[in-house]
Specification:
It is a single chain. The protein is about 30% helix and about 20% strand. The chain is of the alpha/beta class. The chain has two domains: about 160 residues, NAD(P)-binding Rossmann-like Domain (Rossmann fold, 3-Layer(aba) Sandwich); about 160 residues, 2-Layer Sandwich (Dihydrodipicolinate Reductase, domain 2). Helix 5 packs parallel to helix 11 and helix 6 packs parallel to helix 8. Bound molecules: NADP nicotinamide-adenine-dinucleotide phosphate.
Length: about 350
């Protein structure tokens, strides 16, 4: 049994980590932090965990928790304050924020708008998308878990970009449930504002844009110019990204199917399907991907649960790899379907 700590245990991703890990056969949660709820029973705040997690929130991870691995489920800017000490203590860490996702600190500072205070640990971080970085994750001390929209767009477009046929910008139309914004309320997230609406935001300026471009380039060695338009939709969980691209020449559907099958045919969590659906993947670590071509145009799509394959499920997938467990342990269940 390995001991696990969660920093940021009251947030949506921290709760989801606790839900998943509470029934994982090889780990036990020995600490969950919350500065605002220290001393409160976890199950008093999160009744779905009653009988599964018998712990009180603490302000920090206590020595008595004897942790083997920590998840930092904290906002960007907060994670980089926690991680230096975890690295110094030799504690493996999976960070769910954007703080360590960029190899180039300047790109981070430009898109996130403030200085990175822990540049020493940036080179240690491995991008936590197992389908593309499985080997590196196995040896990593620090994993930078991908963004939710970024995971969906990267899974959708990487095989297409890898053909070398993409010409011009790729327009990524991302639609997300409101849990993607975390638990802090804002006018846009108030039910009357978003409950029966679809709201575009951060048009062309969202922070996942450079993350998508950098990872696609790293995996394919091809440049991808991404124009990303995220939308809030009136559901709690789930993302559907629809990505439009022009091609330099006509290609057939059979050729495209072959490209995607080559990428994902052996992957348990990424399924190449006809019509991806949020309903089909919600509450699971699965992503559904499809790609269609007509003439010199292509559309690639990906559906996933932002809190699972887009965050906590993928983080546990990385943890399994880092701790030498079977990659699917504790997360190998299907989506809800209805
Ligand atoms: N929501 C998603 O779908 C999603 C998907 C992928 C990635 N992410 C990323 O995952 C991280 C967590 O997201 P979330 O949606 O779970 O956020 P959230 O709901 O806002 O929760 C943040 C958590 O961090 C704690 N926290 C806040 N500031 C802190 C600080 N300075 N030091 C220590 N703890 C602090 C909060 O508890 P206290 O204030 O009580 O300490 C809370 O438990 C973010 O970086 C987010 O971008 C989120």
């Amino acid at each position: 049994m390995k001991n696990i700590g969660i920093i940021g245990g009251t947030g949506y991703t921290g709760r989801e980590l606790a839900r998943i890990l509470s029934v994982h056969p090889e780990v036990r949660i020995t600490a969950m932090t919350s500065r605002q709820n220290a001393g409160t029973e976890v199950s008093d705040l999160q009744p779905n965990l009653k009988g599964y997690v018998n712990l009180k929130f603490t302000e920090n991870i206590p020595d008595s928790a004897d942790v083997d691995l920590v998840f930092t489920a904290t906002p960007h800017g907060a994670s980089m304050k926690q991680i230096p000490s975890l690295m110094e203590q030799g504690i493996k860490t999976v960070d769910l924020s954007g703080d360590y996702r960029f190899k180039d600190r300047k790109v981070y500072e430009k898109w996130y708008g403030f200085e990175h205070t822990d540049p020493e640990n940036i080179p240690k971080a491995v991008y936590g998308l197992p389908e593309f970085y499985r080997k590196e994750i196995a040896d990593a001390a620090l994993v930078a878990n991908p963004g939710c929209y970024a995971t969906s767009a990267i899974l959708a477009i990487t095989p297409l970009v890898n053909t070398g046929l993409v010409e011009g910008s790729i327009f990524v139309d991302g639609k997300s449930g409101t849990s993607g914004a975390g638990m802090n309320p804002s006018p846009r997230l108030h039910h009357p504002a978003c409950g029966e609406s679809v709201i575009p935001y951060g048009i062309g300026t969202h922070r996942h844009t450079p993350e998508i471009e950098a990872v696609v380039k790293d995996v394919t060695s091809e440049d991808a110019d991404v124009f990303f338009v995220p939308h809030l939709i009136p559901i709690v969980r789930g993302i559907l990204s629809t990505c439009y691209a022009g091609l330099t020449e006509e290609t057939t559907q059979e050729d495209i199917d072959e490209v995607y099958e080559k990428f994902y045919g052996k992957e348990f969590f990424v399924k190449y399907t006809e019509e991806p659906s949020i309903r089909s993947v919600v509450a699971s670590n699965h992503a559904e991907v499809s790609a269609k071509v007509r003439g010199k145009n292509a559309v690639a799509m990906c559906a996933l649960d932002n809190l699972v394959k887009g965050a906590s499920g993928q983080a546990v997938q990385c943890m399994n790899i880092m701790l030498g467990f079977k990659e699917t342990l504790g997360i190998g269940t299907p989506g809800l379907g209805v």
